[in-house]
Amino acid sequence: MTFPWSTMDEQRAAVADLLESLTPEEWARPSLCTAWTVRDVAAHLTMQQLGVRDMLVRAPIVMRAKGDMNRAIHDMTVAQVHANTDAELVAGIRASIGSRRHTVGVTRYETLTDILVHTQDIAIPLGRTIATPPQAAAVAATRMMTMRWPRPFPIKQTLRLYCLEATDTAWRHGTGPLVQGPMGALLLLVCGRPAALDRLSGDGRAELERVLRA
């Protein structure tokens, strides 16, 4: 079965091409991922295939996080930034193309979500366009809205009060006031990116924006 690996490969190639074209100033720009620069997100994308041995090497970083997974991910990413040049980060992403591995403790669907969302975290603030495949985004969004572990984004509880509906693929989730738009924008919303609100509409959109920005 090629899906979702083929989609991951396409996204990895696209984001590597984009990163390779950036100026030093663009590498340092803020991404959509809170408190992370474009370089930070790129470094994170080189860590989508960490096996048991890789995690053992990073065990001191994880232990210092004292159970805070977000802090552990942040600190591992910072270490990766410091250990690699921009060119090495691009090479690391390219090296993952064709691989069928994912980080220990998560599934290929979290890995799919990671590359789809973080590609946009980089591209959107830079004014670049990398298309998000709607069907792949639908699979990722369903995973985010139904999974219990890894812990889902806090926004999930808020979005349960709305009906989310894609306009470019057959995907609908939840009941309540309608929030609709491209599947890629809905995936960003599900993953806690308020920037996606500008691409959404529906009778629940304005209310949702007020709730999220409160």
Automatic annotation (TrEMBL):
<dbReference type="InterPro" id="IPR024344">
    <property type="entry name" value="MDMPI_metal-binding"/>
</dbReference>
<dbReference type="Pfam" id="PF11716">
    <property type="entry name" value="MDMPI_N"/>
</dbReference>
<feature type="domain" description="Mycothiol-dependent maleylpyruvate isomerase metal-binding">
    <location>
        <begin position="10"/>
        <end position="102"/>
    </location>
</feature>
<dbReference type="InterPro" id="IPR034660">
    <property type="entry name" value="DinB/YfiT-like"/>
</dbReference>
<dbReference type="InterPro" id="IPR017517">
    <property type="entry name" value="Maleyloyr_isom"/>
</dbReference>
<protein>
    <recommendedName>
        <fullName>Mycothiol-dependent maleylpyruvate isomerase metal-binding domain-containing protein</fullName>
    </recommendedName>
</protein>
<dbReference type="GO" id="GO:0046872">
    <property type="term" value="F:metal ion binding"/>
</dbReference>
